[in-house]
TrEMBL record:
UniProt protein name: Alkylhydroperoxidase family enzyme
Species for this entry: Aeromicrobium panaciterrae
PANTHER family (UniProt xref): 4-CARBOXYMUCONOLACTONE DECARBOXYLASE FAMILY PROTEIN (AFU_ORTHOLOGUE AFUA_6G11590) (PTHR34846), CYTOPLASMIC PROTEIN (PTHR34846:SF10)
Gene3D superfamilies (UniProt xref): AhpD-like
InterPro entries documented for this protein: AhpD-like
Amino acid sequence: MSRIPALSPQDAGPIIKVGYRMARKQVGEVPEPFAVMAHHRKLFVLAARHELALQKAMHVVPESLIQLAVYRTAWTVGCSWCVDFGSMLMRLDELDVDRLKEIGEFENSDKYTEAEREVIRYSDAITATPTTVTDEQVASLVEKYGNAGVLELTYQISHENQRARMNHALGITDQGFSTGDACRVPWATDELASQEA
């Protein structure tokens, strides 16, 4: 249970209800961080717009590398919700999610390419406190993906740090997205019961 409860649809205003419907349509259930953020309508709208704009802005670095960097960041910070949701995104993109079990041993695992290892190292360097990014890391990534690509990677990793740390602070944990059984928002059980009655 999160430290701030999710806002139920019955208590939500029209904008939040529209956001909930859109989220359900897109991922099958209302993500709990979204439902917790709904207590602050302006932050809710800001976060929703930002996530949509961010999806549209990414086009330089292969999506699989971005997802791996974001997953590693969530794993490092310890956000079980982000790890759960990230696993779902990779599964839906038909990427190999079984290899995520070896993310802790990525340096020696044959399930990761050198390009993936480099992106994971960059994610680790950004996520470290204080950060440990080197000139050499950035130069190597610029050579492969250009300035715009490094900006994409850096932005996504930094943004995942913000999401993961916020979820962790608010006690938001995995919701079942990775298994295709997402339903842990508090009102889901109530809705199911009313549909069966």
